[in-house]
């Protein structure tokens, strides 16, 4: 029931975008001519532009389905802003692509800018309020689904936040039917009765759906609930008990006649997504290596000769995709120390603020991440990606995997020059287990929620951090 209603709302929201956005384009062209903007109304190729706008909306649906958001008002607004940003980016690329490809002079750039900026406000309103409007129209009155929970109170307590998020789909949870005595003070749901009264309660409250919270390791218990629901014509939702054993969200995988659960939903296992990510890597890395890197080589080599003579690059073994080791390239930012020198320090020691091993210009390089630019060579070689979890030294890998059990899951994708954790300020020296745990949490969030737009967004955030380095950069 929930899936079907969600799919139905998604279809309606998609149809709304396909109707409203082209209609707004037509209306704005009429208004623009009335107010004397540079526009030749009778020369506009309306079919081409309307087709482009509809295509942009369908591309948005392909990358991020406009499903009804749930949660608090602030969460709904943030979700709507994110969706509006994604839609408007695709729309702008499509429209400006049409203008430049056709060299159209009937529409001015000023008009396109006006349409795109006004469309952002319109899309924000659509993504924020349209799901609620459709839900209130379609899932009220006779279409409300009266629901009860059956099982243990502490399991019902775990679902309380989820229950509050689902009124938009017309699901009204009336309370809990339990067994034994209920002493859970944190349970805010009303107790409707004992499981021995289950059949009478279904009729008394006109229940349409039962959420079975547990199996109690008893086939007789499950059969009793299921058979009673069948007799009374109630739908059944079965809570996944495996979630009790994991801190992560489980993802259902259907293969043949069987349903499996996995702890990771990995978009980059889709070969199409892998091709898109690799194309983005080449589009970013190739210009950097051909145009920017030679310039940086001249500047950095000049300061190395003056302040810290030695090799230009520094190579180090790092752990990458599937735990395979590779040599990472960096501009050398530290003084050269003889291997047998008594003052030589272990290269596995992480750089820290005020590190005496770093020469003066090297400090600037590390703060602005200039020392990382040779890693675009690693990207072209295929050892790294522009965006992904940062690779660590193999010695640190062994150390960190003993501290954090899920550490090695970050090797499911290629390591990156920048990543989600780095844009949140987690860079530099790792001084505690909490820091590495937070980095891994963000790495897993990236792996499980990858999209091409996420990569593009992280690249722009990284550029901002290069221009305005965070305090953790040293």
Q: Looking across the biggest beta sheet, what order are the strands in? A: 3-2-1-4-5
Morphology: flat
| Strand residue content | 5-15%
Q: Give the SSE order as H and E letters.
A: HHHHEHHEEHEHEEEHEEHHEHEHHH
Number of structural units classed as domains: 3
The low-pLDDT segments are 340-344
- What share of the residues lie within helices? 40-55%
Total of helices: 15
Mean pLDDT: 82
Structure classification: alpha/beta
* Rg result: 29 Å
Description:
There is one protein chain. The protein has 474 residues and is α/β, with parallel strands linked by helices. It folds into three domains: 2-138, no CATH class; 144-239, Rossmann fold (3-Layer(aba) Sandwich), CATH 3.40.50.20; 269-337 and 347-467, no CATH class. 51% of the residues lie in helices and 12% in strands. It is built from 15 helices and eleven strands. It has helices at residues 2-34, 46-63, 73-102, 109-138, 153-158, 160-164, 198-204, 219-232, 271-307, 360-368, 375-381, 394-403, 420-423, 433-448, 452-467, and strands at residues 145-150, 171-178, 191-194, 209-212, 235-238, 251-255, 258-262, 313-319, 325-331, 385-387, 416-418. Helix 1 packs antiparallel against helix 2, helix 3 runs antiparallel to helix 4 and helix 9 packs antiparallel against helix 11 (375-381). The two termini are 53 Å apart.
């Amino acid at each position: 029931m929930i899936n079907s209603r969600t799919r139905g709302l998604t279809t309606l929201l998609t149809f709304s975008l396909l109707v409203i956005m082209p209609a707004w384009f037509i209306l704005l062209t009429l208004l623009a001519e009335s107010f004397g903007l540079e526009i030749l109304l009778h020369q506009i190729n309306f079919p081409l532009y309307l087709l482009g706008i509809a295509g942009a909306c369908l591309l948005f649906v392909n990358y991020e389905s406009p499903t009804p958001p749930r949660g608090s008002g602030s969460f709904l607004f943030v979700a709507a802003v994110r969706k509006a940003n994604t839609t408007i980016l695709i729309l702008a690329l499509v429209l400006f692509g049409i203008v430049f490809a056709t060299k159209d002079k009937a529409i001015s750039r000023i008009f396109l800018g006006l349409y795109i900026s006004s469309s952002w406000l319109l899309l924000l309103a659509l993504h924020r309020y349209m799901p609620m409007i459709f839900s209130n129209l379609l899932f009220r009155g006779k279409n409300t689904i009266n629901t009860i929970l059956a099982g243990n109170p502490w399991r019902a307590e775990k679902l309380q936040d989820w229950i509050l998020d689902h009124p938009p789909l017309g699901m009204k949870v009336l309370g809990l039917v339990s067994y034994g005595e209920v002493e859970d003070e944190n349970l805010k749901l009303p107790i409707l009765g004992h499981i021995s009264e289950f059949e009478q309660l279904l009729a008394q409250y006109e229940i349409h759906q039962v959420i079975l919270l547990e199996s109690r390791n008893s086939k007789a218990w499950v059969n009793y609930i299921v058979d009673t629901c069948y007799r009374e014509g109630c739908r059944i939702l079965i809570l996944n008990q495996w979630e009790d054993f994991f801190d992560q969200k489980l993802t259902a995988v259907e293969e043949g006649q069987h349903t499996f659960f996995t702890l990771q939903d990995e978009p980059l296992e889709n070969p199409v997504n892998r091709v898109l990510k690799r194309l983005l890597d080449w589009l970013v890395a190739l210009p950097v290596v051909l145009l920017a890197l030679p310039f940086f080589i001249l500047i950095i080599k000049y300061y190395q000769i003056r302040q810290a003579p030695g090799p230009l690059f520094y190579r180090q073994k790092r752990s990458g995709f599937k735990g395979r080791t590779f040599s990472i390239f960096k501009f050398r930012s530290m003084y050269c120390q003889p291997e047998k020198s008594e003052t030589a320090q272990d290269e596995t020691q992480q750089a820290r603020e005020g590190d005496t091993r770093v020469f003066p210009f090297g400090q600037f390089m590390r703060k602005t991440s200039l020392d990382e630019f040779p890693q675009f060579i690693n990207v072209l070689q295929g050892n790294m990606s522009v965006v992904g979890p940062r690779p660590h030294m193999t010695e640190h890998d062994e150390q960190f995997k003993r501290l954090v059990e899920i550490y090695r899951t970050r090797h499911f994708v290629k390591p990156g020059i920048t990543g989600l954790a780095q844009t949140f300020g987690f860079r530099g020296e790792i001084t505690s287990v909490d820091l590495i745990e937070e980095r891994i949490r963000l790495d897993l969030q990236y792996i499980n929620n990858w999209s091409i737009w996420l990569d593009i967004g992280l690249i722009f955030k990284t550029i901002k951090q290069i221009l305005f380095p965070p305090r953790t950069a040293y």
